[in-house]
Design brief:
binds glutamic acid; about 260 residues
């Protein structure tokens, strides 16, 4: 079974921009184990800008485009260096693929991307995908890695997309502000009522937020791919998700 796992900046780094070593080590260990069990795994990883901030000692997330792109260029190196080091402990080789919207929209480039990932999977390599933040400008930008991960899952015919975030799943209200907020464990159809939940609290949810996660769910489920939102603070939840246990929120893929 082919799965796409997306991990957000909040899981990989502290708010300082420094690496969250515990989360990253645990993530690489679990993903290696999942690969050992026979799954084909594609990782979509954020964190380039966040880690660049840490390395360049920037106090806040850069607003200026050139500085943000420079931070991404620095941080992407740090990110891949860390993945390479950690995955090699479990005998896995990593490969970096950086995409822009243009690569997705152009049929030749998109076919090349799909062909490359297939070959990497055949070679037993762990493909790690991010947006090419250092060259993407407003016209070319995919904008967030939730959407990017859903496009990747769709293009590669994945059966399951897992978004590891700093929130447990989709709630009936913002759980950080409303103690009565309830986790919605299963979404069979993305109705206007479900969409309204995200538009209320999207901007408060950190990187990406619930709006982009619901957009990702629409793209993935329309392609027949299930999508799960789960908390990345304990990457071992991946085992429970793959065992079909109820974790976070699952959006069921439409039957094709
Ligand atoms: N591509 C961005 C980065 O690596 C993250 C985008 C997102 O968090 O959705 O920093």
């Amino acid at each position: 079974m082919r799965i796409v796992v997306k991990v957000g900046t909040s899981t990989l780094t502290y708010s300082t921009g420094n690496l969250n070593i515990r989360h990253m080590e645990e993530l690489c260990k679990v993903l290696s184990d999942v690969k050992n069990a026979g799954y084909e795994v594609i990782l979509v990883s954020s964190g380039a800008v966040g880690m660049g901030m840490g390395k360049l000692a920037l106090k806040s997330r850069p607003q200026e485009l050139a500085l943000k792109q420079a931070a991404a260029a620095v941080g992407q190196c740090e990110l891949m260096y860390t993945y390479d080091k950690l995955f090699s402990e479990y005998n896995y080789t990593v490969a970096q693929i950086l995409l822009t919207a243009e690569d997705i929209n152009d049929s030749v480039r998109s076919e090349n991307f799909i062909g490359t990932v297939h070959k990497l999977l055949e070679l037993g390599v762990m493909p790690i995908i991010n947006e090419n933040d250092s060259v993407a400008t407003s016209e070319l930008v995919i904008g967030d890695n939730d959407t990017l991960a859903s496009i990747v899952a769709k293009s590669l015919g994945a059966k399951l997309l897992i978004l590891l975030s700093d929130i447990d799943g989709l709630y009936t209200a913002d759980p950080r502000r409303d103690p009565n907020a309830k986790l919605i464990s299963r979404v069979e159809k993305i109705t206007p009522q479900i969409e309204a939940l995200a538009s209320e609290n999207g901007s408060k949810m950190g990187t990406g937020g619930m709006v982009t996660k619901l957009r990702a769910a629409s793209i993935a489920t329309a392609a027949g791919c299930d999508m799960v939102i789960a908390n990345g603070k304990n990457p071992a939840v991946l085992y429970d998700i793959l065992d079909g246990k109820p974790v976070g929120t699952i959006f069921l893929g439409e039957n094709k």
